[in-house]
């Protein structure tokens, strides 16, 4: 049996979805924190970056994340990049950070944005 589009099976079943891809990135950051001596027991400031196609999309996103207790870092957009840097105090264990990033991915998509990841300080 010959497949019409040989890549369909790969993209439909084997290729990780947007959440799985982010979870892989989350695992890398969590492991880097652990390797640096962080026990991952204390909530801390976690910064997130989201990129947009328009300032209207960015403004709509920021209004929504404020309702989720996120703070907005001051970041003037320029003609090359329209982005939002947000932060909130959260746990950074693998399960907790996955829940946060999953919700931010969805919210970013609703506002025509792309979630680009997170970072945090090491707490020893």
UniProtKB/TrEMBL annotation:
Endpoints of the signal sequence: none
Gene3D superfamilies associated with the record: RraB-like
InterPro entries: RraB-like_sf (IPR036701), RraB_dom (IPR009671)
Ranges annotated as spanning the membrane: none
Pfam families tied to this protein: RraB
Domain annotation Regulator of ribonuclease activity B: ranges: 26-119
Lineage top rank: taxon: Bacteria
Record protein name field: Ribonuclease E inhibitor RraB
Organism: Paenibacillus polygoni
């Amino acid at each position: 049996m010959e497949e019409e589009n040989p890549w369909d099976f790969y993209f439909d079943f084997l290729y990780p979805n947007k959440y799985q891809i982010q979870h892989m990135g989350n695992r890398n950051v969590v492991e880097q924190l652990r390797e640096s001596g962080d026990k991952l027991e204390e909530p801390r400031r976690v910064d997130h970056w989201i990129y947009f196609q328009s300032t209207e999309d960015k403004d709509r996103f920021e209004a929504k994340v404020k309702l989720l207790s996120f703070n907005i870092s001051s970041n003037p957009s320029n003609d090359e990049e329209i982005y939002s840097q947000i932060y909130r105090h959260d746990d950074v264990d693998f399960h907790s950070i996955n829940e946060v990033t999953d919700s931010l991915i969805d919210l970013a998509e609703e506002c025509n944005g792309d979630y680009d990841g997170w970072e945090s300080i090491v707490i020893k």
